[in-house]
Specification:
Layout (H helix, E strand, L loop, with lengths): L3 E5 L2 E5 L4 H15 L3 E7 L4 H4 L1 H5 L4 E7 L7 H12 L3 E4 L5 E4 L2 E6 L14 E6 L2 E5 L5 H9 L10 E3 L10 H7 L3 E4 L7 H9 L4 E3 L4
Parallel strand pairs: 2-3, 3-4, 4-5, 9-10, 10-11, 11-12
Antiparallel strand pairs: 1-2, 6-7, 7-8, 8-9
Amino acid sequence: TDSCIIRVEEQGMMIDGSKDDQARNRVNPCLAYLGIDHVDVALNTHPHYDHMTGFIDVMKQAHIDRMLIGGSENVNWVVKQAVHRLREDGTVVERVHDGDVITFGPVTMTMIQRLHTDYPINDTSVMTMIRYRDCSLFMTGDIENRAQRALYTEPPEIDLKCDILKYPHHGHVAIDQTLYGILEPELVIVTAHEYPARRGFAFLKRYDTPALSTWYG
C-alpha cells in the first residue's frame, strides 16, 4: 500500500491513496481507527493507478478539501477519473510545483520535482521533504535512476539529509549511492513485501540501515 497519513493536531494530509482495493481494505480502516473523517490536503505524487485510484474510495471515509497533483489532470484515464470524482465531492484540485511549501503548524512540507521531457512517469514523481522541528521525513514517490541523480546534479535549495526515508519505487531499484550518502537516513520505510523489494532490502542491509515493510501494516 503506497499511502501515507500525516496528522498534525487537528489537520491531516495524505500522500498518495494507493489503489482501490488497498484503500478499502487498509487505508480506510486506518483512517477510521484514527478517527479521521476529513483530509485537509492530499497529494498524488504521479499518475499511476496504484497511487491515485484509491482516493476515490478514501472519499467514502474522509472528505478531501484539496487535492494536489504534479502534472496535467488530463495526462491519463487514472487522473481524469479521480479528478472528476473528487470535484463531484467538492474537492479543490490544484497543480503543485517544485519548491512549493505547505505549512501545518510546526510542520513544513516542501515539494521537490524534476521534470524533463525524456523522463518516464516515475521519475517525474513529486517528492516531499517533511520537517517537524528537528525531525525530517523524505517521501520519494516512485523516482528511479534519472530523478535520483538529478537530486544531486540539480539540488533543491533545502538540505536533503533526512531521519526517515520512504524508499523510492517500492524498493524495486537500488538507490543511487551518491544520493544515499547525502540522505543518510536512520530508518527506511519500504512500501512493498520483502520479496518484490529484495533489491532494496539487500541495499539497505549493506549499509546496516534499519528498514520496515508496510506489507504488515
